[in-house]
Design goal:
78 residues; mainly alpha; Arc Repressor Mutant, subunit A; two-stranded antiparallel ribbon; 3 helices; 40% helix; elongated
Length: 78
């Protein structure tokens, strides 16, 4: 998971869920706000301790999680 220096996991913070820089702001919260129409600027206004790079990494992390790999289970190695 290289390149996600702002996405943190700590069992003592939000039950170990993916958070932003160790804060009690989860990746899921930010994604839900974006999905429901808030802009990055509106999110930062509502949560002034967030930075634009936090929002970018949330989206990059979500894209990384959603990346699909297709495996042909019927393929026999040669």
């Amino acid at each position: 998971m290289a390149g996600f220096d702002r996405i943190t996991f700590d069992p003592k913070v939000m039950g170990g869920r993916a958070c932003i820089r160790g804060m009690r702001i989860t990746v899921a919260l930010v994604l839900n706000l974006l999905a429901n129409g808030m802009t990055a600027e509106q999110i930062i206004e509502a949560y002034p301790y967030l930075e634009p790079e936090d929002i970018r990494q949330v989206l990059q992390y979500a894209a990384w999680l959603a990346e699909e790999n297709i495996y042909d289970l019927n393929a026999v190695p040669a």
